[in-house]
Write a structure and sequence with these properties.
The structure holds 2 protein chains of 2 kinds.
Chain A lengths: L17 E3 L24 H9 L6 E5 L2 H5 L19 E2 L4 H6 L2 H14 L4 E6 L1 H6 L3 H12 L2 E5 L8 H16 L12 E7 L5 H11 L3 E7 L4 H5 L6 E4 L2 H15 L3 E3 L5 H15 L2 H29 L3 E6 L2 H13 L3 E7 L4 H10 L5 E4 L3 H11 L3 E4 L4 H6 L3 E4 L10 H16 L8
Chain B lengths: L1 E4 L6 E2 L6 H9 L5 E6 L2 H15 L6 E2 L4 H6 L2 H15 L3 E6 L1 H5 L4 H12 L6 E4 L8 H16 L9 E4 L5 H13 L4 E4 L24 H5 L6 E4 L10 H9 L3 E3 L5 H16 L5 H21 L3 E5 L2 H13 L3 E6 L5 H11 L7 E4 L3 H8 L5 E4 L4 H7 L3 E3 L17 H34 L7 H4 L7
Parallel strand pairs in B: 1-13, 3-4, 3-5, 5-6, 7-8, 7-9, 9-10, 11-12, 11-14, 12-13, 14-15
Classes of the chains: A alpha/beta, B alpha/beta.
The structure holds iron/sulfur cluster (2 copies).
Protein name (chain B): Nitrogenase molybdenum-iron protein NifN
Keywords (chain B): Nitrogen fixation
GO molecular function, one term (chain B): nitrogenase activity
């Protein structure tokens, strides 16, 4: 039964989701439902919502559903907190067969009561999982009642897993955040020179790194969405004068809505890689039009760049000409990786995402070299096929992709939410180069 | 011993178990040339793959029927069939497992009928398909594992000519453990069929070219012949009959069933070899006798250190039963034993084991980590179980010896050897060394505080051992 490895690896349903730059004129199809049986690497709506909301440190995160959904997401992310550790618990209503038959609303209400009594908090997020959508529990009503009873915010997150993919979960999370940040009285008074930082989850302290840069140039970070954020800070979100967005895939919707509702302008930025970090800081400063800030920034750039430049040059010499394959969650990450790799002399030969958006794929297409394979919602067979065909030396991906790379004898970079080292800013650029060198230049490859 | 169940609560705080299909995947990965498809939404499959991949460091390909809104409202038959088509095309499996997730079960999908229709429609008359209704809310991964084994046997075992081989069913242990059991059987020249055998499929050697269908696994022909075996040794004393593959073979084909505990610790390993030698008439090889002697030697060498140990043990019923026994044999008296499963057999068995323990112990079923934590506080100085126990280390400063599944914050979970005389020796060394490390880390400070500063005059009970009260 076992046939050659590379046969039949592209399903015809998937043909439109894979292109080779320069070879075809067609546009890549993305944002479609995963094809059954193709072993998609994608996660669900609930996963997307949880990723975005979980870093809210002082919230109770309650998963309404059977145990598995909560079990697989318990404290697996590397978001750090400067305060409460409550977010690192996984609470679940642990629905059982009888709840599925008779409904889980009462159990949910009791669960909220129990948790609020045990962990005094101002906000509870209640996540819907797939079967909640099917058994028809009225999350909205239960949350409303609980909210009135406990005089705190109990916010339903409509993240039933089958109604789309991870990207739909981002949206559900943004909706929940919009409810939370809504000012209670009139509009909060805006504060000058303050920014909200959207789409950074403070993995390995990345928010703190950026906060420090901003502080050095005289800009206050009002609140980050959602890395190391907490109730009080989020409540003041509408006072910021600018929203800057790192991970657009998850947060662009929130930024757009905040512009509509609170007239806060937004700007896409990226703090991954030297080039993007410098350019982004400059754009932020320009938008404030303050010459003093500008001066501070230029000083900072010189200082920080001179610190890391020699190291990066050293790495570039060693890594020049290597070929990378990228398969990550969202488009933003993919785009910045292309640029970051360029900074250390590495070409990207295959690139894909689970949930990239059309405009992001266009940018990717503009950035990569002719012949690079671009693919959306790939599966292991396709990843294997194109990595081998393109002669990639290195794969960037998450936990599920790692063993595949290793079995193929290919180096690997962890670019996921569980990492324990920062990849943002100047220090992050060095970390990435170091990690690339550690894996690519490891002596173990000599033996395989 | 005191019993406590947490199921009266309405909230689970930090789960101590995973869900049914997870166990089903593991069981099916032990079949030769198998592929699994989960009927339900995409996310469940992705989460489980991620968890399994992290533990075993192996690519874990599991398909999903990727049910969406439409499929959920109008039925998922089309999705499942399309999923089967694509999976078969890409992987060419020799056997297929179809597991349901919560969603499919809730909307009442009849996977038996759909798969039968499918095979007829496509003309795949000789492609075996094992179906398991395994909604996540129906039980933990432990039940999913055993139920799937039973379904595999129900589907594939035949009435065959009697033969001298024996059947062995193993609980969720490491690939290294499975290899160890196979080594004994080979040493003793016993012919056997071991199910599920994921010793290669989930722990394969590096080799080129990469094959996405790993080699190894229990051959289907061998499972077919299970009905004619001389006996079944099932390492499953905590099993209910409805989930017992061995019971099925006994009632259906008259294969005598011997239910034994997982061979960890001297007693359990002796039980295993006694039973095996009795059934096969073979002798315990000298090599294994030597290993037994070395284990005894190890136990004596470390008994005084172990005597200070007070353990909190958590995990799947079969595994924790064996770990408990090993701890008791060495004076590492348990203070909390917990499982996420609802398993009354386990409680009865533990009650027996614990009658002679001098230390009060609480047994928790359907447990969560919040409860385990509270009950271990100040009483336990050693946690034994999966990586999730790091919560106990972080919050209560109880060092954790990683054992079981999943181990996702360290490497090598797949290589942990803990069965038999040799495996127990390794395992016990880890327990002892963890106790020693902890002692060496703290004794200067605690003694200084107790006797020089005079604060906190009594050393904490776990350190001095034995203040806990006898039942
Ligand atoms: S509990 Fe049910 S819905 Fe949740 S992951 Fe498990 S099978 Fe999927
Ligand atoms: S049941 Fe739904 S929410 Fe839960 S893991 Fe599966 S796809 Fe995600």
């Amino acid at each position: 039964m076992q046939k050659s490895v590379l046969q039949d690896t592209v399903f015809h349903e998937r043909e439109d989701s894979i292109i080779t730059k320069g070879k075809q004129k067609k546009q890549l199809t993305c944002d479609t439902a995963s094809v059954a049986g193709c072993v998609s690497q994608r996660a669900c709506v609930y996963c997307g919502a949880r990723v975005v909301l979980n870093p809210v440190t002082d919230a109770i995160h309650l998963v309404h559903g059977p145990i598995g959904c909560a079990s697989y997401t318990w404290d697996i992310r590397g978001s750090l907190s400067s305060g409460s550790e409550l977010y690192r618990n996984s609470f679940s209503t642990d629905l059982k067969e009888k709840d599925v038959i008779f409904g889980g609303e009462k159990k949910l209400a009791r669960a909220i009561d129990e948790l609020v009594a045990e962990y005094p908090t101002k906000v509870v997020f209640v996540y819907a999982t797939c079967i909640v959508g099917v058994i028809g529990d009225d999350l909205e009503a239960v949350c409303k009642a609980a909210s009135a009873k406990h005089q705190i915010e109990v916010i339903p997150v409509q993240s039933s897993g089958f109604a789309g993919n991870k990207a739909a979960g981002y949206r559900a999370a943004c909706d929940a955040l919009l409810r939370l940040i809504k000012p209670s009285q009139k509009k909060n008074k805006p504060k000058a020179s303050t920014v909200n930082y959207l789409g950074d989850f403070n993995l390995a302290g990345e928010v703190w790194i950026i906060k420090d840069y901003l502080k050095q140039i005289g800009i206050e970070l009002n609140v980050a969405f959602t890395g190391d954020s907490h109730y009080e800070a989020l409540k003041n979100a509408t006072t910021a004068s600018l929203n800057i967005i790192q991970c657009a895939g998850s947060m662009i919707y929130l930024a757009q809505r905040m512009e509509e509702l609170y007239a806060i302008p937004y700007m896409n930025i990226s703090f991954l890689g030297l080039e993007d970090t410098a350019a982004s800081l400059r754009r932020i400063v320009d938008s404030f039009g303050d010459p003093e800030m500008k001066l501070c920034l230029e000083e900072l750039l010189v200082r920080e760049t001179s610190k890391v430049k020699p190291t990066l040059d050293w790495y570039r010499e060693r890594l020049q000409g290597k070929k990378a394959a990228i398969y990550v969650g969202g488009g933003f990450k993919a785009i910045s990786l292309i640029k970051q790799f360029r900074e250390i002399g590495i070409d990207v030969v295959m690139i894909g995402t689970q949930t990239g958006r059309q405009e992001e794929y266009q940018t990717i297409n503009e950035l990569v070299d002719e012949g690079t394979v671009i693919l959306d919602d790939a599966n292991p067979s396709e990843l294997e096929k194109f990595m081998v065909e393109k002669g990639a030396h290195l794969l960037v991906g998450g936990v599920k992709e790692r063993p595949l790379a290793y079995k193929l004898g290919i180096a690997f970079i962890d670019h996921n939410h569980d990492r324990k080292h920062p990849l943002s800013g100047f220090v992050g650029a060095v970390n990435l180069a170091k990690e690339v060198a550690t894996t690519l230049c490891s002596p173990v490859w000599q033996y395989v | 011993m005191s019993r406590k169940a947490t199921n009266f609560r309405d909230v689970n705080e930090n789960p101590c178990n995973m869900c049914m299909p997870m166990g089903g995947i593991l069981a099916l990965k032990g079949l030769e040339n198998s592929m699994v498809i989960l009927h339900g939404s995409q996310g469940c499959a992705t989460y489980m793959r991620r968890h399994i991949a992290e533990h075993f460091n192996e690519p874990i390909d599991v398909a999903s029927s990727s049910l969406n809104e439409k499929g959920t409202v109008y039925g998922g038959e089309k999705n499942l069939k399309q999923g089967l088509d694509n999976m078969i095309k890409a992987y060419r499996p020799g056997v297929i497992g179809i597991l349901t997730t919560c969603l499919a079960d809730t909307i009442g999908e009849d996977i038996d009928r759909i798969s039968q229709d499918y095979l007829v429609e496509r003309g795949y008359t000789d492609l075996p398909v094992v179906t398991v209704n395994s909604p996540g809310y129906g039980g933990t991964h432990a039940e999913g594992y055993w139920l799937t084994l039973r379904r595999i046997v129900e589907k594939l075992a035949r009435k065959t000519e009697p033969h001298t081989g024996i059947n062995i069913f193993v609980p969720n242990i490491s690939p290294a453990d499975i290899r160890e059991i196979k080594r004994w059987l080979e040493l003793m020249q016993v012919s056997y069929t071991l199910l599920p055998d994921f010793s290669d499929t989930l722990d394969r050697p590096y080799q080129r070219p990469y094959r996405k269908m790993p080699e190894g696994g229990t051959p289907l022909a061998d499972i077919a012949a299970m009905g004619g075996a001389a006996a079944t040794l099932q390492l499953g004393v905590t099993l209910e009959d409805s989930m017992s593959p061995g019971r099925f073979l006994e009632t259906e084909f008259g294969v005598p069933l011997y239910n034994l505990p997982l061979p960890m610790g001297v007693t359990n390993t002796d039980l295993f070899f006694n039973q095996l030698t009795e059934i096969t008439g073979k002798k315990l090889p000298a090599e294994l006798q030597q290993e037994r002697g070395r284990l005894l030697d190890c136990m004596i060498d470390s008994h005084k250190y172990n005597g200070a140990g007070r353990s909190v043990i958590f995990g799947e019923p079969e595994n924790i039963y064996a770990v408990t026994r090993t701890c008791l044999e060495n004076g590492i008296y348990p203070v909390v034993i917990a499982t996420g499963s609802k398993n009354p057999q386990l409680v009865t068995l533990l009650e027996d084991l614990l009658t002679h323990s001098p230390v009060r112990c609480t047994v928790l079923t359907e447990a969560d980590f919040a409860t385990i934590r509270v009950l271990s506080r100040g009483k336990a100085n050693l946690a034994i179980g999966s990586s999730d126990g790091r919560y106990l280390s972080e919050r209560e400063d109880i060092p954790l010896v990683r054992y079981g599944f999943p181990i996702h914050d360290r490497t090598g979970g797949q290589r942990l050897l803990s069965v038999g005389y040799r495996g127990t020796t390794y395992f016990l060394d880890q327990l002892t060394n963890t106790l020693l490390e902890n002692k060496h880390k703290h004794y200067r400070k605690s003694i200084y505080q107790a006797f020089y500063l005079g604060i906190n005059k009594t050393l904490d009970s776990a350190e001095s051992g034995g203040e806990q009260h006898v039942l």
